[in-house]
Design brief:
Layout: H1 4-15, E1 24-28, E2 46-50, H2 57-67, E3 72-74, E4 80-82, H3 86-97, E5 101-110, E6 113-118, H4 127-131, E7 142-145, H5 147-152, H6 163-172, E8 177-188
Parallel strand pairs: 1-2, 5-8
Antiparallel strand pairs: 3-7, 4-8, 5-6, 5-7
């Protein structure tokens, strides 16, 4: 929403994925101007859905879930970036372990500099860990088997923040989580983040 300066970089990291079969859905949460204004004809493999009013990140993610057709669904906030092998490694981990929730490590970046790197170490039934203060750091590190959304529902659209943590708590009660122990996501810290409010 209203961050085209980040969006184009995020799109590029999706297009550079080594996994060969990716359906790319962008939800424009009523940006002004519309994000389609910033997409070139080279982005013709992208499906863009535009909300008629600004509804917030939770609703935007839920819209993406409803549109997506894939066996796995991964999220990428417009101000984050994926490493090229992220999806391939997550799909491989899912197939190796049978886990329906796969997450990766993350690099935290501000003013062009990496100031922290988090390597994941939680696996299996992680509900107690999450309720005891553990965090998975960002929605952008997550990939879920599409069946989990039928079992636990969608992101809570009433929560202004921490919707990813709450969603993972619900999912953790029914499926195992497995990590890809590499920082395959970069999160950019800036002044227009929801968590700053």
């Amino acid at each position: 929403y209203n961050r085209p300066q980040f969006l184009l970089s995020a799109i590029q990291t999706v297009q550079e994925q080594t996994y060969p079969c990716i359906e790319h859905v962008i939800v424009d949460d009523c940006s002004s101007p519309p994000i389609s204004n910033f997409l070139s004809t080279e982005n013709s493999d992208i499906t863009v859905h535009r909300h008629s009013t600004n509804k917030g990140a939770n609703t935007a993610r839920n819209t993406g879930i409803d549109i997506a057709n894939g066996e796995y669904i991964a999220f990428l906030d417009d101000d984050d970036e994926w490493e090229p092998t992220k999806i391939e490694k997550q799909v491989n981990k899912a197939k190796e372990t049978g886990a329906k929730a796969i997450y990766t490590g993350i690099k935290q970046k501000s003013d062009g500099n990496i100031f922290a790197t988090h390597t994941p170490d939680l696996s299996g039934q992680i509900t107690e860990d999450l309720l005891s203060g553990a965090t998975l750091n960002s929605t952008s590190v997550m990939m879920f088997h599409s069946s989990v959304f039928d079992e636990v529902g969608r992101f809570d659209e009433e929560l202004p923040i921490s919707q990813d943590w709450e969603f993972c708590v619900r999912i953790s009660t029914i499926v195992n989580f497995e990590p890809v122990v590499e920082p395959l996501v970069t999160r950019h810290h800036h002044n227009s983040q929801i968590s700053n409010n």
